[in-house]
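[Structure tokenization] protein backbone as discrete codes
[Encoding] learned vocabulary of local backbone shapes
[Protein] chain in single-letter code, fold in tokens
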Amino acid sequence: MKICVVALGKIGLPLAVQFASKGHEVVGADVSERTVQSVNDGTVPFPGEADLDVRLKEAVVAGSLRATTDTTAAVSRADAVVVVVPLFVDAEGRPDFGWMDDATRAVAAGLRPGTLVSYETTLPVGTTRGRWAPMLQQGSGLTAGEDFALVFSPERVLTGRVFADLRRYPKLVGGIDTESARRAVAFYEEVLDFDERPDLARRNGVWDLGCAEAAELAKLAETTFRDVNIGLANQFARYADTVGVDVARVIEACNTQPYSHIHTPGIAVGGHCIPVYPRLYLWNDPSATVVRAAREVNAAMPAYAVDLLAAAAGDLDGLGVLVLGAAYRGGVKETAFSGVFAAVDALHRRGAKAYVSDPMYTAEELETLGLPAHRDEPVTAAVLQADHPEYRTLSAAQVPGVRVLVDGRRITDPALWPGVRRVVIGG
């Protein structure tokens, strides 16, 4: 097959490489000339994705993968088009379709009869049928479900382990009609491999959910579940702090029963997915009070961590405080919806002199993000925000002057912090 992958980001590029590894001719389309040049040079444009550097180089050298900024031209020669363009939400949770609208218009301009179009970007329910189908039809003069196939098939992978997750989890598809779904099942069975999963009630592979709306809801539901679960865990942790109980021991005990699967509380819920997709769900279902409450609890956790610091250290006015970790997740160089921003804001509101350090970022990179980089200014307190592996062996000697540490991820070794008051959330 000839396949076009639209947007070569942290999901799209590994997908393009995966498709190419199955013997297909893949063209990746991206609006960034820098990204396109990097891919054509066989160089990964972002760090941290396991095996991507080797597999990308192999695909480019073999001639099975190339990149272009001309989406329309790439689509015009494709049998299948997979769209993985980012969708954002504003502060009120309203989706911003701007980038996806532009990409869809470019796809429509090159669309030809017989092509399969699959959207993998997480969407509000009803978007594939209600927004993309009319836009594709208007721009191409073709009819969805008759002249071309259209499906939604959510990405279900985690950055850093995309190739492993592509094998591990069933690939969900939902078409705007039966034939579109059939085409999508055949396509994904051709380009993906699946691990044996005896724990599943049915064979691991491509699962047709019956319609595009079901596939859209499945993605929102599985991610919103995580946010709600974490919100509940954070609520337990905050209560545990009031009664002197270690919530980690409580959760460990609860989860010995198969009916309990309480997640881990912590200082922040960040990334492109968990903080965002519940808002997309709420856009569809504004009466979902449980979802809204969980989102509010999780959004408040960075400020709560600063409250714990103030309770342990006293007045923060004028106090030098180092926030450890800008990334939203350990080992990933990405700050999307990271708790670092809210933590710094909360410290500033209390008059503290906040600084940020991160083993994956230079001081200049942090300042470009609008964060106050630590350049050896004196600090007397620290808040650990990201669970980078380096912090597991971090010691008080490496942060001289610190007398209070709020470990928002419970990963520091207490034995390495003698003489420092170490505080954890829920405990």
Notes: The chain is about 40% helix and 15% strand.
